[in-house]
């Protein structure tokens, strides 16, 4: 059964249409931010539209996810209630905060990634 699932997953991934690329590609990754003083400062450091200064990046990767779990800025994404905090605008649960932040990136034309297997 497990092998059948893996084969099915392989076909689903390989046969699915790739997402459209936005060109030109302007990519950055965020490993640390300068200020943890407020929710706005954290979201600004993460490049979230509406909080960050206008920028030309259309692909942002948060660093790093490793074999031991989230590190650095991915910790912020993995536990937004702890690191970013709840608010009326973003919500008060992990799922709600992640969805609200992801929507802000999407609305700003930015693809968000988690960088895997890097080192700190």
Note down, in words, how this protein is organized:
With 120 residues, the chain is α/β, with parallel strands linked by helices. The chain is 38% helix and 17% strand. The protein is built from five helices and four strands, in the order αβαββαααβ. Strands 1, 2, 3 and 4 form a four-stranded mixed beta sheet that branches. The longest helix is centred in the N-terminal third of the chain and has 14 residues, at 2-15.
Keywords:
120 residues; alpha/beta
Summed up:
By secondary structure, the chain is α/β, with parallel strands linked by helices.
Largest sheet: 4 strands, mixed
Based on helices, strands and strand pairing, what is the structural class? alpha/beta
Strand content: 15-25%
In one word, what is the shape? globular
Average pLDDT number = 87
Distance between the termini: 38 Å
Runs in which pLDDT lies below 50 for 5 or more consecutive residues are none
The total count of helices amounts to 5
Q: Please report the total strand number as a whole number.
A: 4
Query: How many distinct folded domains?
Result: 1
Helix content: 25-40%
Strand and helix order: HEHEEHHHE
The gyration radius over C-alpha positions equals: 16 Å
